[in-house]
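Two quick folds needed for the group meeting slides. Do the first one here.
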Amino acid sequence: MSNTGLVPYEGKKKKTSGSGTKLCKPLETDDMTAILDMAIEVSNARMGRPAEYPFTAAGLDAFINKTIDYFEYVNSINANPDLERKLIPDIENWAMYLGVTRQTIWTYQQRGKEWRDTIDYYKNAIAAVKKQLAMNYKIPPMVYVFDATNNHGYVNSNEFKLTPGKPEAEQQSNIDEQIKAAGLVWNEDLQRFEAMED
């Protein structure tokens, strides 16, 4: 893989893997244009005040309509051939477009099933876009993994369980019962299981 177009930046100076000098692409004129334009437009429209979506049917409708506007905005930005750096949908810029914070979106999810299902659907749509980009190497796959874990509830686990679904104490009890049923006892001197004496 060629490092053409990459420039160094400094990381932590430790003797661990992944630290020290890294390579990244240099900033370009339009790297932040779409997201900053959105922040300015939303701030001007709201005159700096956060948006509110009341806990009502009308509030949910307004939330849905503004979210649809967000996806249309992303599509229109990305359709501009003059803008080399495209806008990738994510939770943070969705929240910004709505005029709220990602914490506010989380709070809205607690309003009940209808709000939760609606928000989960849109979060899933955002995750699906990023997954497609990662699978086509348009964004680094590891960046997607961290984002999916932190923003979309995915869990990467290599956990090993002796018996699925049973608490550890119950698993230990089952093992003890199996040892006893096999007629074995632990010999402390020899550090091994042996047949019970009659």
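Then this one, please, same format:
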Amino acid sequence: MNIKTIEDVFNHFCATYEPNDFKRSNDLLSRRLYKDTHCGAWASISPPGMRQVGKRQETWTCHFRKVDGIWERGMFSFNGDRVIDSKVPRAVLEYFWPPFDSITPPVTDNGMQEFLAEESKGRSSFELPDTVDLPIMEPHNGMFLVGSIVEGTDAEVTASPVYLPCEAKDLDDAVQYVEDEVSLVWDQTHGCEDCGEPDGAINPDCTSCEGEGRII
């Protein structure tokens, strides 16, 4: 079965879909997956948007100039033509002038002043060409995500996102991945001293915990 829309996802899992209330719809989807999986999984669906499917390379030139002793970024050139900022890909803007790290005081300027002073070799303005990786984006009809905590541990398992359209099997495979991984982590962390298994795994024939295990 081909899953084309968000409503198709809800129908596949027999969950109630309320198109005018996205939060409640996701709550209902999670409730259905919680009941229908051994691990008590949660699930969510995101609205249509864009996703990265690859990269391409382009060579851009950035113009820099020093004004009152401070280096500033000027305009960009692509294939010999000047390009205004609003037409420059975000990846290019951030490549030639990285944004401030939220935990780094802006006064450090991300080291750009020192870098440009060295690159300028005494000049007050110069051009810097370089090849930049640009993301290739494609639209999607929604994104399905499923995961689960592992009871008694800090671990959480999350499957890779499934983008619509997709096959019903892709949704089921994501859920099964979470089931399998949670079971694996459980077995590795919930054995008991009498199980005698390596890495604390559960011995299903253990007479002390009866194969149920205990949190290590």
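Slide caption for protein two: DSSP finds five helices and ten strands in the chain.
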